[in-house]
Amino acid sequence: MSRSPAPPVRAMQPPSSALAIPAGTGMAEVGDYVAILKPRVMSLVVFTGVVGLAVAPGHLHPVLAIVAVLCIAIGAGASGAINMWYDRDIDAVMRRTAGRPLPQGRMMPGEALGFGAVLAVGAVAVMGLAVNWVAAELLALTIAFYVFVYTIWLKRRTPQNIVIGGAAGAFPPMIGWAAVTGDVGWGGLALFAIVFFWTPPHFWALSLYRSQDYAAAGVPMLPVVAGPEETKRQILLYTIVLWPVTLAPWFLGLVGPVYAALTAVLNLAFTAAALRVRADSTDKSARQMFGFSLLYLFLIFSLLLIDHLARSFV
Amino acid sequence: MAIARGDRERTIRARNRALLAVLLALVALFYGIAIVRMGGG
């Protein structure tokens, strides 16, 4: 799975036009502060965190469960804000991100960094004081991994950026699990693995039809560095790896055979989508696969939640 | 100029209100956490 060409050693630099960011006005509105928390990413993070919390063995007071979910959400938002601060130069170049508050000049860079840093420290501190310190340490690790390992170190240096950096997005269900149990456990690791192996096909499907944007911004995404054919092959390989990974919660006895059967159907559809992407020379299948990948993860975690709840009532 | 100043004041007022709401929510949150933790939750 790692047969892609050797990654560039030095960081790719965005073109000089990327540095032409309008001078900040410092008049960011409330909506801009919400936008830099990446609410759409946050919603998926919160959902996987809630499922981790729900399927973990043990009991957590409902108020503390809400606090744990809130801390996961704010921690994810803080990571997003610091990411937008660091990536403001390349965000200005890409169509998908050019409308963000920093490239538009509505928010000063220092405001975004300060906002993100305060939220990050606050989320970790509240998680530790109110829930437990294992969950707090995992939350701190998640934020640090996303900011330092993915955003600052890997994103502009290697096409494996989202493979390794994807770990940051995979931690939340494990944090939810740790909030209840006080440790990581095999179940927490299984949930982590599902999101970890789902991330590459999800982002590579997007980057297949946004490769010009990434190339213009100097981000070495796999289609930019290795070409679309290699990217499509890697997408297919990851969808195959997802078969045993998504069935791991069943092997561990967390869920029952209904989950296993329905997950097999979802995996069949996801692998079929990857095959369609491989056979299609246009962007259409990649766009469809990107949309379906979101639905796929949502349904896998929904099934985990429903099956677990059904079993606990029987 | 007057319109720009009005916009600026409106933005600042909205930000202040949002900050107040966040602070009140934090007070409620810490109050709830304290009750649960003291109750052995």
Level-1 CATH class name of the largest domain in chain A: Mainly Alpha
Largest sheet of chain A: none
Give the beta-strand count of chain B.
0
Q: What is the SS-derived class of chain B?
A: mainly alpha
Instruction: Give the biggest sheet of chain B.
Output: none
Say which CATH homologous superfamily of the largest domain in chain A is assigned.
Answer: UbiA prenyltransferase
What is the helical fraction of chain B, as a range of percent? Answer: over 70%
Mean pLDDT of chain A: 91
Strand elements of chain A, count: 0
CATH architecture label name of the largest domain in chain A: Orthogonal Bundle
Strand composition percent of chain B = under 5%
Helical amount among residues of chain A, as a percent range?
A: over 70%
Describe this structure as you would to a colleague.
- The complex is a heterodimer of chains A (314) and B (41).
- With 314 residues, chain A is mainly α.
- Chain A folds into two domains: 32-182, Tetracycline Repressor, domain 2 (Orthogonal Bundle), CATH 1.10.357; 184-314, Up-down Bundle (Four Helix Bundle (Hemerythrin (Met), subunit A)), CATH 1.20.120.
- Helices cover 73% and strands 0% of the residues of chain A.
- Chain A has helices spanning 30-35, 39-55, 62-86, 88-91, 109-131, 133-154, 161-165, 167-181, 185-209, 211-217, 222-225, 228-251, 257-279, 284-313.
- In chain A, helix 8 packs antiparallel against helix 9.
- The N and C termini of chain A lie far apart (42 Å).
- With 41 residues, chain B is mainly α.
- Chain B has one domain.
- In chain B, 90% of the residues lie in helices and 0% in strands.
- Chain B is built from one helix and no strands.
- Chain B has one helix spanning 2-38.
- The termini of chain B are far apart.
- The mean pLDDT of chain B is 84.
- Classes of the chains: A mainly alpha (314), B mainly alpha (41).
- The A-B interface holds A 27-30, 33, 61, 63-64, 67, 70, 126, 129-130 and B 7-8, 11, 14-15, 18, 29, 32-33, 35-37, 41.
